[in-house]
């Protein structure tokens, strides 16, 4: 009996969730493609169109997305899981649609995973533009949290595919902080396997500061405190509306958005 030919699979898959991100994707994909060209291992780029209406899918296809996956339910955890389900690589790298990564940070992540001693991790984050006093304080606070607790920011998270599947992927019950939940689950899975979860510090990723332009400093601080004091709110789309709404459009209508639009 003839055997089926072996299926060729890339070493790693980069998953980018995107809702109405036609404006951000060209720069994000250009940076990603430059990083992937510098890599020795073969990779693929999957863009998840999370029910966009601005031509996100076409933009992704024109600017370097290898495959476009459609996820109709507007939720960041579902979008990321949909991309992971379509991925073929044994390593998964999640990058936000407004986040630019360098060749070094991608190489550092893949090198860590190839050691078989790392189950997953993240990287430090910097804003592309001056975020102002609140943004500078926030990024310093997050850096302290990330370093001291070993959790990854959603803008850049990497892991072994088998570990991701073992812990059930991103928790679709949550509308925010799903990357923190996944970080903790991967850390526990890593301990079970004798592996560690690491936060890379040599090459930070660069992400948009647009959320800081959309909302006032006091509002951002108040909302962050609210989620810290009322963690049950993470299970409510309405109470997590801060992450799911953009400011009024020129026509005066408010548009829904996702946490990848931070």
Uncertain ranges: 249-262
Strand order of the largest sheet: 3-2-1-4-7-6-8-5
Please summarize the sheet with the most strands.
Answer: 8 strands, mixed
Secondary structural class: alpha/beta
- Give the integer mean of the pLDDT values: 83
Shape: globular
Q: Identify the CATH class.
A: Alpha Beta
Helix content: 40-55%
Helix tally? 10
Extended strand count: 8
Specify Rg, calculated over alpha carbons. Answer: 18 Å
* N-to-C CA distance: 54 Å
Order of helices and strands: EHEHEHEEHEHEHHEHHH
In percent terms, what proportion of residues is strand? 15-25%
Secondary-structure arrangement, i.e. CATH architecture: Alpha-Beta Complex
Instruction: Indicate the CATH topology.
Output: Spore Coat Polysaccharide Biosynthesis Protein SpsA, Chain A
Count of discrete domains: 1
So, the CATH homologous superfamily?
Spore Coat Polysaccharide Biosynthesis Protein SpsA, Chain A
Give a brief description.
The chain has ten helices and eight strands. It has 262 residues and is of the alpha/beta class.
